[in-house]
Amino acid sequence: MGTAVVAKEMAAKKIARKHISNNFNKKTIDAKFKANFNNGKINQNISVYMKIEKDKVIWLKGTKFISVFKAKITPTSVQFYSPLKKQYFDGDFAMLEELLGTEINFNQLQNLLLGQAMLNIKEEKQLVEIVNNSYILKPEVQSILFDAFFDIHPGHFKLNSQSIVNSAKEQRLDIFYPSYTMVDEVVFPKEIKIKAKDGKKFTQIDFDLKSVEFNTAINTSFSIPNGYKRIEL
Description:
Strand 3 (57-64) and strand 4 form a beta hairpin. The mean pLDDT is 93. This protein is mostly beta strands. The chain has helices at residues 12-21, 94-100, 106-114; strands at 28-38, 43-53, 57-64, 66-73, 78-82, 87-91, 126-131, 134-139, 147-152, 159-166, 171-176, 180-183, 186-189, 191-198, 201-214, 229-230.
């Protein structure tokens, strides 16, 4: 999807409204990605299958010849297991916070995967400036804990990128959306690049969309196999 649209002067409130009105509104997603995971110790290309029942379940499976991991995330829990390491995690969002170096909840994770702002940009008064032909929104009063920035495309009003920065803790989460695709009249991220820094630790996950379907019957069943060792954080 091209970027031939010119970013015109527009009130921050109107930009926020347009972004929110373009929020994803299908009931289910069934997608396949090619993904690369790199944290300095592990650098791995895998296929990732993602099924989402909106606002209820995010189900993920990573494979490389065999299943590498499976995860099921709901608004209250994170479950994960790795057949390679015979390990599992069953708990809250601490697992994802460890991975991304920042606090995150279900809604924020879902928005991250859909090209939507992780924070409610209508709740806080926003400032806007036009940079490189896109709208940069940031809260007029930044949170005490972190700074947030949202780079919004002037054509489809989805995100080009979003950043959450906690300088005191040396944590930074940047998510880039280099391209989108149009499927069933939905603007959906074709590429997602997640960069997380926590002090000297970093995690980079790149997703490249291979296929996606909406509103199909999806199976998000999940059970942790017997005999696996529990991961304690």
